[in-house]
Amino acid sequence: MSRLITLIVPAFKETLFMVSITTLFAVLIGTPIGVLLVSTRKKHILENNILHQTLSYIVNFGRSFPFIILMISIIPFTRLIVGTSIGTKAAIVPLTVATIPFYARVIENALLEVNWGIIEASQAMGATPIQIIFKVLIPESMPAIVLGITITLVNVIGYSAMAGAVGGGGLGDLAIRYGYHRFDKEIMVWTVLLLIVIVQIIQFSGNFISKQINRR
Length: 216
What we know:
about 0% strand; mainly alpha; 10 helices
C-alpha cells in the first residue's frame, strides 16, 4: 500500500496541476474568442463577417487534430515555450492549444442561448456592444458557461491521460508505465478509479453551481 501511495500521490498532483493550469489558460484565451464568434455573427451586435469566418476557420482547424497527433506535431513550439518536450510542464502547452478552440466553441454555444429579445431591449436602452457583452450576454449565460467549464475540465482530464503516452506525466503516464508496460493491475485499477472519482466530483460540482446561479 505504501508503494501504491508513493506512486499515485505525485501522479495525482501532476494531473491536478496540468488540468488546472490548462483550463485557466483556456478560459482566459478561449472566452474572448467565443465572445467574438458570437458578437461578429450576421446581424449581431458587432457584425463582421470576415472576422467571424476567420475565427471560425481557426477554431475548426484547431479542433480537427487528434490530441496525440497535435502533441507530437507542436513539439518544436513546446520546446520553444518551456525548453523541453517531456514532462508535466511540457504537456501543458499542447493541452492548452487543444483546449482553447474546444472551450471557444463551448462559450459560443452558451452565449447563443441568450434570448435575442433581451439583447434588443438593451440596445433600445442605449447600451453599447461592450456593455451588452459584459452586462447581458455573459451574466445571462453564466449557468451554461459553468457547465461548459465543467465539460472542459473533464475533457482536459482525458487529454492529460493521453499525454502520458508520450511522457507527459500524471495519472495517465503512471497507468501506461506501470499498469500497461509492467502489467501492474493494481496500479491500473487504482488509477482508473481515481480518474473516475475526479470526473464525478467535477461534474457534480459543476451541476450544483450551475443550478445555484440559474435565475431562470
